[in-house]
Structures are given as C-alpha cells and as structure tokens.
Fold this protein.
Amino acid sequence: MLTVIQRVSRAAVRVDGEVVGAIERGAMLLVAVERGDVDADAIATAKKIASLRFFPGATPMDRTLAEVGGGVLVVSQFTLAGSLRKGRRPSFEGAELPERARALYEAVAAALRAEGLEVATGRFAAHMEVDLVNDGPVTFLLRSVAGQVQ
C-alpha cells in the first residue's frame, strides 16, 4: 500500500462540483492499494499516520495529528500504483482490483477513526477535484507491505 501524506492547512475534495469531504488543519492522504495488499497494510498505515510527529511544537516536527486537533482527508489514488517503466502510457497492472481496493481504502479510513481522528473521504472511483494548501510544504511517502511499514 502506498500513501502520500501531506500536511495541510486545509483540503477539500469535490465530485460534480459538490464538496464530499473537507478538513481544516491536518493531513491529506492519497492512498493506492496495490495487488497483494492485505488488511494488515491498512491498519499499519493508519497506526503510523496517527502516531507520526509531523506538526510543529517545540521543534518543527514533534506533534501528532491528535495533539494539534487535526483532521484527515483520505482519497483513493490508484494512479500511484501505476508504472511508467515502459512505453508512453502508464500501466496499472500493479493496482488492486476495484472491489478489493475499495475495501482496503475504506479500512484505512476506519482504522484512522478507530485511532480517534476526525476523518473525511473522497468518493471511491469517482472523478474528483482536490484542493489543498500544503503546509510547509511537508510531504511524505509511506509504503506498507505485508502489514509492515517499509
């Protein structure tokens, strides 16, 4: 599972002009479910993000989402699982099939809620417009394989 984590001052996602998810200060997550990902990847991803110290306090990065009262906007982003290795067109052979991808994407959101965080989401498989203000900018790439953060 691949997740792009962006610290944001605000973020929103729209489908057909309607806001379907929005947060103020917090984290914007773009989540890609890859073939072979398991439920443990969703849990490991959520636990790492919930405990990650990437907000300023006494030092530039020493407070968690919960400590700053931050929200999380989770958006499915299958194109992160794409390969640009060959040819001029991306290959998505590494992306999980939609039914399984949806379940694991929703499991990430549920696990973040279980960690006590306020969570908003995009709409799986919809064409979305995402607006965000990256704070810092601070951006990380998180990979989980077989339930272990890499």
About this structure: The mean pLDDT is 97. The first strand starts at residue 2 and ends at 15. The radius of gyration is 15 Å.
